[in-house]
Structure prediction request, 820 residues.
Amino acid sequence: MARIVMKFGGTSVAGLDRIRNVAGRVKREVDAGNQVAVVVSAMAGETNKLLGWCQALSALHDAREYDAVVATGEQVTAGLLAIALQEVGVEARSWQGWQIPIQTDNAHGKARIREIDGSDLIKRMGMGHVAVVTGFQGIAPNRRITTLGRGGSDTSAVALAAALKADRCDIYTDVDGVYTTDPRIVPSARRLDRIAYEEMLELASVGAKVLQTRSVELAMNEHVRVRVLSSFQDLPVDAETGTLVVDEDEIVEKQMVAGIAYSRDDAKITVRRVPDRPGIAATIFGALAAQNVNVDMIVQNIAADSTTDMTFTVSKADLPRARMALQEVKPAINYIELLEDPNVAKISVVGVGMRSHAGVANTMFRALADKAINIEVISTSEIKVSVLIAAEYTELAVRALHTAYGLDVA
Amino acid sequence: MARIVMKFGGTSVAGLDRIRNVAGRVKREVDAGNQVAVVVSAMAGETNKLLGWCQALSALHDAREYDAVVATGEQVTAGLLAIALQEVGVEARSWQGWQIPIQTDNAHGKARIREIDGSDLIKRMGMGHVAVVTGFQGIAPNRRITTLGRGGSDTSAVALAAALKADRCDIYTDVDGVYTTDPRIVPSARRLDRIAYEEMLELASVGAKVLQTRSVELAMNEHVRVRVLSSFQDLPVDAETGTLVVDEDEIVEKQMVAGIAYSRDDAKITVRRVPDRPGIAATIFGALAAQNVNVDMIVQNIAADSTTDMTFTVSKADLPRARMALQEVKPAINYIELLEDPNVAKISVVGVGMRSHAGVANTMFRALADKAINIEVISTSEIKVSVLIAAEYTELAVRALHTAYGLDVA
Prediction:
């Protein structure tokens, strides 16, 4: 007997047939003697439809009302799944975030979960009842409905698993696990049996869209064993199914590199020939921060004469605001030119094995050089090396690196 | 300054343009210095869509889950209207039934309101904020969402008006008031400026679909002044707008007949030649009650020899269950034949003036006789006379009666 949280995303519940299919999977776990809580997203497309209505009525719509409107998507799915479960003979009831309650802060539209009172659910799960819980939402101290932001249902599932002290948190999605890279680019990409939280975190934040970043952070902090698996493959869940996201200690044979991610969401900005003196960087990045622009990779050239170039990346969506912020500080820092390049891609190799293996970055640079791909910016962390290259080389770079690190299926 | 509850039905909020239109009407009342609470239905079609999903998943779906699913319709509309109001500069927030709370009993799918705590709303309305309240729903003692049954938003509005001690409850609908009869049948039908609660109740229960019966009962008991008016006519609300539903005392010149209603929802059943002895009626109607079949008009022939015929009406939807119930008691009451006739219509004339005027029924019978329309069953109450006739004469009968009672526009 295990206590399990199962989470189903929007494509897994998009329509009545798929909801029936989900009910069948849940029933299988119940029949195997497990205690089950299910977390559901809104049917695919529903959240966007509701968001579109809010936007059409007001460009600057009240985030509290937006939350009340979009939270209905999960409420519908939870009720329907409870009905579908009852129809196949499984005792079940739906729970809205405010009923449990799932307490969040007041940050409407991007709230954070503060506390989940799992006592009622644990009692009922002990009686064999399945709890179907609305993902993505909770209740604020002011007793209004909050939502957690896009992908928030993953976070709901992990937080619930922590509150229920669940043995597993199974995240059902439209892919069958975490891959060494995007299989659409590298057909020989391998599904990973296990991946460390920190690797998953780096991969999630650099473009692998399997799990929401915050949910991985939470799983790491709360030691929740997360399994990513496909809701479209009809297999019993065992140790070989999907990808298990766990503590680094649980991974015996650490690969040097677990996976390769890419992102085309960034743009490169170069501020040409700013004075090479203290306080310049503070002025530039202070102005960007004031405009809420997140800066990712940063590189400063060695000063030639008394000036230097400052290059960094921001998300493409932030580009107009970044430009505005930099034009405003031009009198203060007196640069000569502002260069923008949206046609870049960030390629990252990630692996906890880097801590003990030397030469990871070198392998990367050599593989890219062999394909004559120029590296524009480099940044590194303890378990990640990222480079910025021209976007047109994205697929070529990913394939070359996948081979260079020995990740191709034998 | 007045305190007003405004209620908008599904057709009045069916789409973003109509929601903007509703916001404009609410703003007008706010600009006139009134305190306003708004009760909204789901967008037209939404409740049926959600109900259809529940039914498709399970013919005998859990009413508690059904409630959780369909209650989302009003939640969406309330949030959207709050956004639309803010966009035109009106302070507003949405309230779900559980937030206020609107406390109901546990009868999921057809709950009754027990109590509304209006204190929070009154405080905020005093600050000039509009409260946008989800109609049709509340919260049960078990903290689950309940719905009030079809048309329940009217009841929500009247109950809220009572709780808020509102000066008016304006029910916006797709007609501009209560008419002396259906204008599609009698083009010269007149809109009534005022109608008594009891008249409205009789008209509502015999087929005039303007207001839900329960909402009129509640308005009568709580002395809520209800105005029925059109959400599609863009006129300022004054004493002449729509139809005011009020205490009989407030109607100075009472007409003998306020209106004429018809219903084709009934079927006639005749149980032929049952023994004329005590207990037979109890057996027949007991069997029907056990099957949850509501019986409306009843007539028993004078006994010829030792047997009699029992004729009554049930709603067409109940006909199969009524037939089954009666076949089951055949051994006990030993009737000869069961006749069914679904091709009937019930025509009713209604008016509090009947209490003081003689000859109302007689006028009716003469008018129908002049058109050679046969009366099959008659039933009367203090302020109503109903007759059952062949359905094909419906329009002819309604027109003849409208003229006979002097209701045609001069």
Chain B has 13 helices and 20 strands. Chain B has a mean pLDDT of 92. Chain B touches chain A at residues 16, 19-20, 50, 53-54, 56-58, 61-62, 64-66, 68-69, 71-72, 75-76, 78-80, 82-84, 86-87, 93-94, 96, 98-99, 143-145 (CB under 8 Å). Residues 25 and 393 of chain B are 42 Å apart (CA to CA).
